[in-house]
Amino acid sequence: MFRGRLVASHESPARLEHVLAELRRRPLGELREPALDETALMPAVRAVHEPRYLDFLRTAWDDWVALDPANADLDALPSVWPLPNRHGFRQDGWPDNIAARLGQFAFDSGTPLTAGSWRAALGGAACALAAAQAVLAGERGAFALTRPPGHHAGPGFCGGYCFLNNAAIAAQALRDGGHARVAVLDVDYHHGNGTQTVFYERADVLTLSLHGDPRTEYPFFLGHADERGAGAGEGFNRNWPLPRGTGLATWRAALDQALQAVSDFGATALVVPLGLDTFEGDPISGFRLRSADYAGIGAALASPGLPTLFTFEGGYAVAEVGVNAVNLLEGFERAA
Ligand SMILES: [Zn+2]
Known about the structure:
Helices cover 39% and strands 10% of the residues. By secondary structure, it is an alpha/beta fold. The N and C termini lie far apart (42 Å). The site of zinc ion has 7 residues, from loops. Belongs to the histone deacetylase family.
């Protein structure tokens, strides 16, 4: 649902297929497809997401169709939201109606939930976990090529095409696997609001994000420079909101500051939510990075010398997403 109309989703299967095709053309390592075993996956998923939210995701499609069998041909989208208390709505109510429950858990109307959403989201988590296991086993780099993406999904909410936060699940798995300090450096065009929220009160996972300024860019309600973490996590979140039109020089200066923060933190592993919607040709974003720029960005991301896990996030210039992703990964590989 975009500006009052149902439109084709920018988050399409072709995005992933282009990356896969480019990885086959310019191989960087073994391609693995992890098994999807829900029972085995759930402890790692529950380490990041709330039980009531996971219950919602698991049953939402069946509940949607049960509301009206004709819904089977439609996307499940929210149409009513319980805005915060100052508007008077209760935050402790739990409606049975799936139309209301969609509004409790989805922060936008652009994230259609369909028959395969839960299984696809679980597949993403399986991919992120397999990448974490590869890194824990000694790989210098691993790329979780997933869709749907994950960095907008928080402990108890979906949005921005995201249902399970693959980067957060991977970061937590690295922590649980023995890494004392994990840094998450989000380079998608959009603020990694979900990941920030997951770790906002923690000092063991540093969250950093370079993105379009939320005063003008989605997700609008988070991602400002003054969000520095809270409680034990005070000082362990940083944001670099950048204006529309930002090109390589300004973007790289922000990246260098973020990489310095990774080093200062003493990170032992790095997770990079990798969005390619910073590309100048992206249809829904406003930065001006070029295809040739991504190799240097990959090399910069290798410079801290850390085991590094990439998760596939945004990027909607479909044909170029594959080239840009592999340019970045190749740049990382050469410098690593
Ligand atoms: Zn994005």
